[in-house]
């Protein structure tokens, strides 16, 4: 062997390259190789694999495979630690590139996306109580109003008024913020079961209510005060008095809110209908809310004059007359909001007319008036409400009122035709907000028909309207559970309770009447503004019990033995009521007997 070859072999042996640790024959017979394991002297090499990006944070830190168990992985459990959970990848919102207009030949404009590739998600934060140096209790009740009351108090189809506008007004007007806190605390007192907590919330609510009223008086005594802000305050006071059970005071503030809106529109020289939200710009929801206040006063205790009712009804007439023509040749509404708005206008105008008729008829009837010095007791007697009256004959009504009566019926029928497609579409999905809103619109329409007809008929003639009574009960049943259980027990708008009272007072079909009374009795704590479910249920039961003593073999109550509610004094805060009911002593008598009835619940 040459010297150069010896040098190459020597270098190979020293580096170990190309030389086996043991001969091939020896490696083949080694028992370690037979079992697939390398001898102890050799180093095992881990197979290459992609890095795992899923799993809990602990397993990633420990660099082990996570089993991704729920709610925690077993690896962490066996290791003796709590699983740190899993991080889910966030989805990025990418905008596609598009050309706004075709480019000409030779254009030097470069194509680029008009929106950023990634959009950061919006971060919503709960604003603190407006103003400075506010204590923890004020912030807590203000937050309770925002989270629970504001989203539900408007009823089905509510606007942004309670959720956005009123809290924003409170940012710059401390007395509005104090009224919000008072409303939140009072509503909270009706939610808790513990008596001590109820008293605590209620005392705090009354204290804040007094502070708010004091601030409002200082502002109202100034010249040139903002009537728009005053209307927001009026809404909050109405809700507070209604929740407190002071119905007379609530009715007074409801009528006052309407007067403020009329004055505000007069100052702006505004000629539109205040009920049409889209005609009033950013104050549309406020105008509709004040219109709801108007109906609250109309449907309960209303001390406004007959001239005012007549003027308001005539002013609304021109807007209602344009209803079938502004929606194209078919005469159908385009949206449920338009349908509801015009339905509310027709109902208000009709009730203004009913009030003028009631005031006219009450001049020749005996009134059973109860004193009302405290402003907290609601006294209903002929002439100041829609529900109490004596026997009425059409011959007592002037001819011009009979003609106007027919005009109101025609307006209601035109609304029914224009609303039918929209109402049918909205009521396809049960228990939805659209279903509830459309159903309440139908309830109001049927209630308006019955109340209007009741101004010119005797009590015995209500038997002709059994179909309408059954329709009201059926419609209310379809939405009663969804409204009274899933929403706030207090809602600002009125719809179901006055209609149920109408059935309980004037329907003599036992099955329909009992169903309506059962609904009212099951709504403990549910109120629609001034209207309380339990109170009107008790009134209906009192009338039914007096009449069913004279039921004949066919289950019919003779017309002359119908009981008439002439006067009613309700004290919701004390849960008592004093009724004055007239009824004949026996069939064939010509005179009515006065029967006082005391109620408590």
TrEMBL record:
Pfam families: Zn_clus
Residues covered by the Zn(2)-C6 fungal-type domain: 55-84
One term of GO molecular function: zinc ion binding
Domain of life: Eukaryota
PROSITE patterns tied to this protein: ZN2_CY6_FUNGAL_1 (PS00463), ZN2_CY6_FUNGAL_2 (PS50048)
The keyword Metal-binding belongs to this UniProt entry's keyword annotation: yes
SUPFAM superfamilies: Zn2/Cys6 DNA-binding domain (SSF57701)
Ranges for region Disordered: 15-43
Keyword DNA-binding: yes
UniProt keywords, alphabetically: DNA-binding, Metal-binding, Nucleus, Transcription, Transcription regulation, Zinc
CDD domains registered for this protein in UniProt: GAL4 (cd00067)
Gene3D superfamilies: Zn(2)-C6 fungal-type DNA-binding domain
InterPro entries: Transcr_Regulatory_Proteins, Zn2-C6_fun-type_DNA-bd_sf, Zn2Cys6_DnaBD
Coiled-coil regions listed: none
Protein name: Zn(2)-C6 fungal-type domain-containing protein
Organism of provenance: Coleophoma crateriformis
